[in-house]
User: Fold this.
Amino acid sequence: MIITALLTLGCKSSDTYTLVSEEETIELLRHNQIDFMKLSYKDQNGAPITDSLRTLLNQGKLVRYFYKNRDGVVDQVRLRTTTDENIFFSIRVGELQQDPFWDIDFAKLDCEDSEAMLRRALDRDQGVRKGLIDDIQTNDKLNRDTIISVLDQCEWPDTKDEVEAIWYVIQHAGGRKMAFYYPEFKDMVQRDLLEDSLMAKMEDRMLMFNGYPQIYGTQFTSNPRTFHEIKDIKNVNERRRKVGLVSIEEKAKSAGVDFNWSDYLVE
Assistant:
């Protein structure tokens, strides 16, 4: 209620600005077509923001929405409250402010060989995580360069094995790359080329990387090793069941993590 009240302060702005849709915003960000140095920040009515709103923005409690001026130039941001419905939009806006591919050495390749390249990348990814291959940094770098070169030059594959190979590498490639390819993976789920459980793991990781509670309880912290904070934990098993994951108790046991409901379900 406090956030809402702060956002509604100020007079109504003129109608010279037009809201940019979430889809168009992401496309502009993906193609580096928003100059963040020239943006002015406003509340949701177009009035200058207060120090309180700046604090809420820095805490991840507000979402940036972008507006075009009468010349079609995006030069204004208005802040709205973060909700379950816009949280991944908010994460993607934050991640895509910087080039997600700054560390990629693009390779010229033959798309006819993409299936074999994807398989080798998956074998390396799983090999280093199972301790079968040394030097995780070198192999992860090779995988990122390979997979993103394939996605840059070739069509997305149409088999589950190939899509999952891409998923595993991008899952381990950092928040910016997950944010960039997020809609493609969502589309793969709709096309039955990616399991709901894998999409759930990616969403949990994106939330964790950006300081939010996770939804499904698939991500862990270290020192001590335990579950990263889970939103509405009393209903987590129902959410896990819907995406094909085992119960939180079973997951804790297989991961060697102590889990007691009494530690979470406090009056």
